[in-house]
Fold:
Amino acid sequence: ALTFLQEGIIQPSTSFPCSHGFIYGGLRVGCHGHGSPLPLIPAIATSCNAYFCWGLYRMFGDKKYGSPQNALTVWKDHMVSQGFGYKLGTDLPGEKRGFIPNAGVYDKAYRGSWNGLTVISISIGQGEVLSTPLQMANLAATIANRGYFVTPHIVKDVQDAELDSTYRERRYTS
Ligand SMILES: [Zn+2]
Structure:
């Protein structure tokens, strides 16, 4: 939703339909029963899969990007800016990076022929997307901070030593 808003693909008042899911031709991504159509905030409140599928469909079909590959690159860069796809750099050992697909992943899988419908599952964090619980918690912190996060860390201070500046800097999202 933040990516769609930032890119001007939707406004908070933009409504999308949901008839127990996103249905397009033979493609169906299921959803539960709720009112329809819904604007953004009720769509978030009801966790409507169809809303985010429509958003991605609209973004990837937007001519301003020139191609689904370019749209995916813009989408991916926003995800990475929000702390996904790479290790956040926490001081806890064993951190995983998760995964945010780039255009090359789909060019290889579909021989260069794919569009927003092909990758629709990424709009709801499924498909090829992998995220860690730490990244999800960090996103919640970023929203609470209104757009930035500080690299998550456990160590608050060490006697006679200054806390690593990495854990004091604000990392602003796009
Ligand atoms: Zn729905």
User: Anything to note?
Assistant: The first helix runs from residue 2 to 6. Residues 18, 31, 34, 48-50 surround zinc ion (CB under 6 Å).
